[in-house]
Write a structure and sequence with these properties.
315 residues; alpha/beta; TIM Barrel; nine-stranded mixed beta sheet; four-stranded antiparallel beta sheet; 10 helices
């Protein structure tokens, strides 16, 4: 019975997508570092993260259309979600108003599009009243897991927003670009909303140059700008997805000969530093059981290596 039920659940999902959401024993066997991105120290209350000066992340929900097993915010799954009448909403808006350096507000979670159109529109209206906000980003996997969510009501919210809306999709494999996803992308673009894509580099899913190149080329042909490729964060339950950092750098170097429009930036979270896009002057080298990262100013940071058994070492 279990096998039949599982077959019914997965039968319309391509294998690369199943690998991203199906629980496996490696989640229990692997190690990991809680809050690897160090977001908790930048939280302003329970639902707002202000880690970088000009942008902030608003955690509108802890619900998703599907739960990616490599999620770096897995801790949110069991926390109290933000309710429509929560008094913290006023505190959030007050904080944003007081910090005029915030220009870019990212609606995330969880997946913000699991909210109803009315609930999402209420947030957009609140944000529209903050003069110094220049744009609203919506980070979602709806195009992958529920492309029907891109409906007329949602598109109307985008068009009526006084702030420019940017749609941030999350495709990790070309197989996710289904006909329904492609239709959803066209609807979003036709409503005047630019679409960017973020990809997470995942061992056994997309850690080959030809897979990534196909994804980036297809996205570009649909008018979606490949924005970032992220190194998978070694949080508990997700280390089996982590590629060795050296391999990740080699992959991106291999892709560097292709069109700059099609190839995104590579980024990784470095403890004690934040998001790093390695560039001129940065040095990254394997030192015994870990990586040593040296900034152009000579500051040193450590990054964990992953053993052949997908164990974290060196941090």
């Amino acid at each position: 019975m279990k096998g039949k039920l599982q077959s019914r659940i997965w039968r319309n999902f391509p294998e690369p997508l199943i690998k991203q959401i199906e629980p496996v024993f490696e989640e229990i066997e692997g190690e990991g570092i809680h809050d690897f991105c160090e977001e908790r120290k930048f939280k302003k209350g329970n639902y707002l993260i202000h880690k970088y000066p000009d942008r902030a992340v608003l955690l509108l929900t802890n619900q998703c259309f599907a739960y990616c097993r490599f999620c770096f915010r897995r801790y949110l799954w069991k926390e109290k979600p933000l309710k429509n009448n929560d008094p913290e909403i006023k505190r959030i808006i007050k904080y944003i108003r007081q910090h005029i350096e915030i220009k870019d507000l990212i609606l995330s979670g969880g997946d913000p599009l699991t909210l109803t159109n009315q609930a999402l529109n209420n947030w957009v209206k609140l944000i529209n009243q903050v003069k110094h906000i220049k744009l609203i980003r919506i980070a979602t996997r709806a195009l992958t897991f529920y492309p029907a969510r891109i409906n007329s009501g949602l598109l109307s919210i985008f068009r009526q927003s006084k702030k420019q809306v940017w749609f941030l999709s999350h495709f990790n494999h070309p197989a996710e670009l289904t006909p329904l996803a492609r239709t959803g992308i066209k609807k979003i673009k036709d409503s005047g909303v630019p679409v960017l894509n973020q990809t997470v580099l995942l061992r056994g899913v997309n850690d080959r140059a030809e897979i990534l190149l196909e994804l980036f080329q297809e996205l570009s042909s649909l008018g979606v700008k490949p924005y970032y490729v992220f190194q998978c964060d070694p949080v508990p339950g997700a280390t089996h997805y982590c590629t060795e950092l050296g391999k990740s750098l080699d992959l991106m170097n291999e892709l560097s000969n292709y069109s700059g429009i099609m190839v995104p930036k590579f980024a990784l979270e470095v403890p004690g530093y934040g998001k790093l896009c390695p560039g001129p002057g940065w040095q990254i080298a394997r030192k015994e059981n870990r990586y040593e990262i040296v900034s152009p100013a000579g500051e040193k940071y450590k990054y964990p290596a992953v053993s052949s058994r997908q164990r974290l070492i060196g941090l």
